[in-house]
Amino acid sequence: MTRRQVHLAAHFPGVNNTTVWTDPRSGSQIDFASFVHLARTAERGKFDFFFLAEGLRLRELKGRIHDLDVVGRPESLTVLSALAAVTEWLGLAGTVNATFNEPYELARRLSTLDHLSGGRAAWNVVTTSDAFTGENFRRGGYLDKAHRYERAEEFVRLARELWDSWRPDAIVADPSAGRFLRDDGIGTVEHRGTHFSVEGRFTLPRSPQAHPVIIQAGDSDEGREFAAANADVIFTPHVDPAFYADVKGRLAAYGRKPHQLKIMPGVTFALGDTEAEAVENAAAIRRQQVGPQTAIAFLEQIWGRDMSAYDPDGPLPDVEPDLAEGVSQGRVPVKDRAAVAAKWRALAEEKDLTIRELVIEVTGRQTFIGTPQSVARQIDEQVQANAADGFILVPHLTPGGLDEFVDRVVPELQERGVFRTEYTGSTLRDHLELA
Fold first, then answer.
1. Residue 391: beta bridge partners?
2. pLDDT at res. 177
């Protein structure tokens, strides 16, 4: 029986609660050398792609810039275009918002990256209904939450119309005569939709992989349906056969086969020479990731009130959550904060946890913990069990946090026969085994 192959990608997370920017080994989040180091490490490990997140506004907590978002994030496609010049095989995936961009302009930028990289571009489609983020844009927070996927779906459909509007032999030219013999292969796109109206010819021919890979990170029912209809890859927190089966089961309604959509959860890891050492390393990383201020910030996001007077190493306060607007802006809102607060309180009482210990417990990030051999085995087992098609690794250190994984875990996966030893194709679609 043929074993399923593992797909791997590397995430450059920026400053947030998955990273440890205070560690002496941590480097700049915006220096180009940091991006180069992580990307080249991923390429040395034969990863499918390098993945950049995006932030359109610095998040705030109680009216001040959030401690974990001070650095912010550079614009994704600019960084990826530069990385195209210093990598040869690695896919280059950027998060770009479908709410605050226009299809023709973004399709052109993504197609440019696809040409510059020789067919290695990917677009992580995200949406925003947040008026706080929208204040930086002309349209503001106009888009109702119920319509954000409707706009995104039309956006992706129109982008594909533009990318597909050139035939492979669109232009035939005679250099000696200095004239075009034919240019009838460039179709005119005529789109009249609910959100967009476009008429004209696209400026770029088809790229080496026809058009960029589409990634989607939605988790709601609407997000899963959007992914089933439109995406090539899902970026999800779920390492779960039930989630995998649910999303794959939706594909048939859109005339698609299970292999046409790769499910790649975002995961972290902690390694050690022994299992015990790996567990110790994981605990140390979590304590670095959830410092006193971060613990209080998490609590405030759920309780919706100023909790700075409480000791993070003390017990959970008796005060009840304020379920009004809350004190955090720019972050994905937590659904049913009252239920979450009740669950947290029960867990804290059951295990006698301090505020900081509670936050560490409920925001656990190390998906794979163990020796290089056991982590390779865990990854392989999850893929063979149809819990995922592969994983997007989020290292806790930038930019060197992926080095140990590539040096020690990748060879184990290769030894198991479930991960490539060399790239066999030149485009990202080749790497992901997508048509």
1. 8
2. 78
Residue identified by tokens 């995200």 is 126
Q: What pLDDT does residue 259 have?
A: 95
- The per-residue pLDDT for 435 is 84
Looking at residue 121, its pLDDT comes to 98
What number of other Cβ atoms are within 10 A of residue 334's Cβ?
Answer: 15
Q: Are strands 262-267 and 390-393 parallel, antiparallel or unpaired?
A: parallel
Tokens of residue 181, six digits: 């013999």
Q: How many CB atoms lie within 10 A of CB 173?
A: 12
367-390 confidence digits (pLDDT tens): 899 999 999 999 999 999 999 999
Instruction: Find, among 199, 203, 171, 202, the residue nearest to 185 by Cα.
Output: 171
Burial tier of 169 (Cβ tally within 10 Å: 0-12, 13-18, 19+): exposed
Q: With cut-offs at 50, 70 and 90, classify the pLDDT of residue 326.
A: low
pLDDT higher than threshold 90 for residue 304:
no
Q: How many whole angstroms separate alpha carbon 390 and alpha carbon 264?
A: 5
**Please, which pLDDT band fits residue 143 given cuts at 50, 70 and 90?**
low
Cβ atoms of 69 and 55 within 8 Å: the answer is yes
Structure tokens at 340: 């979450």
235 C-beta neighbours (distance < 10 Å), count: 25
pLDDT confidence band for 15 (50 / 70 / 90)? low
Q: Which of 9, 6, 5, 53 lies closest to 402, judged by CA?
A: 9
* Rg of the chain in Å (alpha carbons): 23
- What distance lies between CA 292 and its chain's CA centroid? 27
Helix axes 337-351, 355-362, angle to 10 degrees: 110
Please tell me the distance from the alpha carbon of residue 404 to that of residue 227, in angstroms, as a whole number.
33
Instruction: Let me know: does 396 contact 18? Beta carbons within 8 Å.
Output: yes
| pTM of structure | 0.90
What is the separation of C-alpha 360 from the centre of its chain, rounded to a whole number of angstroms?
22
Q: Give one DSSP letter per residue of 376-435, joined into a string.
A: HHHHHHHHHTTS-SEEEE--SSTTGGGHHIIIIIHHHHHHTT-S-SS---SSHHHHTT--
* Nearest-angstrom CA–CA distance, 426 and 290: 40
